[in-house]
Amino acid sequence: MRVLGALFRRLFLTRVLALHDAGKLAFFGQLAPLADRRFFLRHLSPVRKKRWVVYVKPPFAGPEAVLAYLSRYTHRVAISNSRLLRLDEDGVTFRYKDYRRSASDRQQVMTLVADEFIRRFLLHCLPRGFHRIRHYGLLAAGTRKAHLERARQLLAIARPATNEMTTEPLDPRPPYPCCGGRMVVIQTFQRCHPPRGPPSAAALSGNPAP
């Protein structure tokens, strides 16, 4: 795998540099200096020193099946809770699909020891610094608003009309200092008339106070 990673790194960087020399790469904004070949080579220099990890094996049903398989991981976890059947001293038992079998016999059950199950599950966890595919592009959560506004300016498209929601009036009730909820005013007393205390136990029982 290390040899394959070095080969893929060389081919990838060579073809990226060829696209740059052919003028097929465009850089804007803060990346504009990368249009200069010297700056571009300096930018690629740290990448050449990193170890690239490449995992390749022949697909069972062609590249279309690979794309369909990878697309499911852009918005789902490696295994859903509904596929987990049992956890005991023998290991973790779960359901899986064996696509080499016929459709009627495709659902199979497998039991793995806990450490092997965790190892396989962690193969689907992205390394630190990586994000899922849906986090990139114009609709990335961190820069969605700025990118869409910039795209509208470049395309000379007006901002879509939005239905302005009527703002609710501010709640005049004071917030409670402990929980932050709104206090409900039951009764208001005037300054010159202090509030009357609760009746005494003697008054409630009907016996006069001594």
UniProtKB/TrEMBL annotation:
This is Putative transposase. InterPro entries: Transposase_32 (IPR007069). It holds the Pfam family Y2_Tnp. It comes from Pacificimonas flava. GO terms for biological process: DNA transposition. Residues 3-143 form the Transposase IS801/IS1294 domain. One of its GO terms (molecular function) is DNA binding.
